[in-house]
Write a structure and sequence with these properties.
- This protein is about 80% helix and about 0% strand.
- It has about 350 residues and is an all-alpha fold.
- Helix 10 runs antiparallel to helix 11 and helix 12 runs antiparallel to helix 13.
Length: about 350
C-alpha cells in the first residue's frame, strides 16, 4: 500500500504516456515506440513545471521497469535455434561488436566524451540498440539524460540505415536472388531490431524474395542480442572494482550491490523458453511476453524522457552524434569485410 502511495501517481502517469507512444510506434515503426516515449516525455516535462508528486514513481519506472523489461526480453530467445542458425554469422558479430566497443573507447578519449555515454553508444551500436542500452544503463549507473542521449544517437543512425542500406546493398552488388548475404549484413550492421526488420523487409520487397532476408536478419540479430550477457557482466565487474577502490575507509564493500542480477534472470528466461520449445511447447505461447517486454521498454523510456532536459540534450549532442557515426561506419565496414573474407558476399 505504501509502495502505491509513493510511486503510483508517477508510474500511472508514465503508463498513460507509454500507451500513446506504443500506438504511435505501431503506426510509424521506423521510429518505434521507445523513441516516441522519450520524445513525449521530454516535451511534457517542458510544460509540466511541478513534478514533485510524480518524481518517486518516475524514478522507479526509469530504473526498475527498465530492468523488468530486459528480463522479459529473455523469453523471446530460443538459445538452441539461435546457436544453430547463427553460428555462420558469429565471426562477423564478434568482429563488429569488438570494433564498436574499441572505437567508442578510443574516440571518447580523443573527444573527451564522458565514459558512461560513450559506453552506452558503443554497446547500443554493436549489440541491439535500445535493448542493449536498457540492459547496460543500470549496470553502469547511467543517469536518465545519458540514456536519452544514447537512444537519440542510436535512433538517428537506425533511420539512416533503414533508408540507405537497401539501395547501398544493390549498389555494391549483394545477391538479388538470395536474401542470405544482405540478411547477415542487416543483422550485423543495423543497430535496433525495428530498423533491422524494416531494412530486411525492404530488400525482400525490392527483389521479391518472400521473407528470406527478413528471416536471416532477425536470426542474426537475436544472436547479437546474446552478447548482452557477457558485456553487462564484464561491465559489472569493472563497476565493482571501481566501487571497491572508491569505498570510504571502514565501510564494507558488497558485490551484490553492483552485480546485475536481472541479467541472470534474463538468461533464466531464455533457458525456460529453450527448454519449453524443445519439449514441444509452441514458441507462439511466449509472444505476449515478448510484446510485454517491448511495452515495458517504452514505459521506462517515457520516464527517462520526463527526467531529461531537451535543451541541454541538443546543446551537448554534437560529440555523441559524431561518436555514433564513427561506430556506425566501423561496424558497416567490418561487416562487409568479414562477409567478403568468409566468402558469403
Amino acid at each position: 500500500m505504501n509502495f502505491l502511495k509513493k510511486n503510483g501517481a508517477g508510474m500511472g502517469f508514465c503508463l498513460v504516456l507509454a500507451f500513446i507512444a506504443y500506438f504511435l510506434g505501431k503506426q510509424f515503426p521506423i521510429i518505434g515506440g521507445p523513441v516516441f516515449g522519450i520524445l513525449i516525455g521530454m516535451v511534457i516535462t517542458l510544460i509540466l513545471k511541478d513534478k514533485s508528486r510524480l518524481e518517486a514513481g518516475i524514478k522507479f519506472t526509469s530504473k526498475k521497469i527498465l530492468q523488468y523489461a530486459v528480463v522479459l526480453l529473455g523469453f523471446g530467445l530460443n538459445l538452441s535455434v539461435i546457436l544453430q542458425t547463427g553460428a555462420q554469422s558469429l565471426p562477423i558479430i564478434i568482429s563488429t561488436i569488438t570494433t564498436s566497443l574499441v572505437l567508442a573507447f578510443l574516440i571518447s578519449k580523443v573527444l573527451h566524451i564522458p565514459g558512461k555515454i560513450s559506453t552506452l553508444i558503443g554497446v547500443g551500436s554493436s549489440i541491439c540498440g535500445g535493448s542493449a542500452i536498457a540492459a547496460t544503463a543500470p549496470v553502469i549507473d547511467a543517469d536518465d539524460e545519458e540514456v536519452a542521449q544514447a537512444i537519440s544517437v542510436i535512433f538517428f543512425y537506425n533511420v539512416l540505415a533503414a533508408l540507405i542500406f537497401p539501395h547501398f546493398g544493390a549498389l555494391i552488388g549483394f545477391s538479388q536472388t538470395s536474401g542470405e548475404a544482405f540478411g547477415i549484413f542487416a543483422g550485423t550492421a543495423v543497430n535496433d531490431t525495428s530498423s533491422v526488420t524494416a531494412c530486411a523487409a525492404t530488400w525482400d520487397n525490392m527483389w521479391n524474395l518472400g521473407s528470406q532476408t527478413l528471416d536471416k536478419a532477425v536470426t542474426v540479430k537475436l544472436t547479437r542480442t546474446l552478447a548482452i550477457i557477457p558485456i553487462t557482466l564484464v561491465l559489472s565487474l569493472i563497476q565493482a572494482k571501481k566501487a571497491k577502490s572508491e569505498k570510504e575507509e571502514g565501510s564494507a564493500f558488497r558485490f551484490s550491490k553492483v552485480f546485475p542480477f536481472f541479467i541472470l534472470f534474463f538468461l533464466c528466461a531464455s533457458v525456460i523458453t529453450t527448454a519449453a520449445t524443445s519439449l514441444g511447447v509452441p514458441s507462439t505461447i511466449f509472444s505476449p511476453i515478448k510484446e510485454l517486454s517491448k511495452f515495458f521498454i517504452i514505459w521506462a523510456m517515457t520516464a527517462i524522457g520526463l527526467n531529461t532536459n531537451i535543451i541541454k540534450l541538443v546543446k551537448t549532442g554534437g560529440k555523441p552524434l559524431l561518436l555514433g557515426f564513427c561506430c556506425w561506419c566501423g561496424i558497416t565496414a567490418v561487416s562487409l569485410g568479414m562477409q567478403h573474407l568468409l566468402g558469403i558476399w
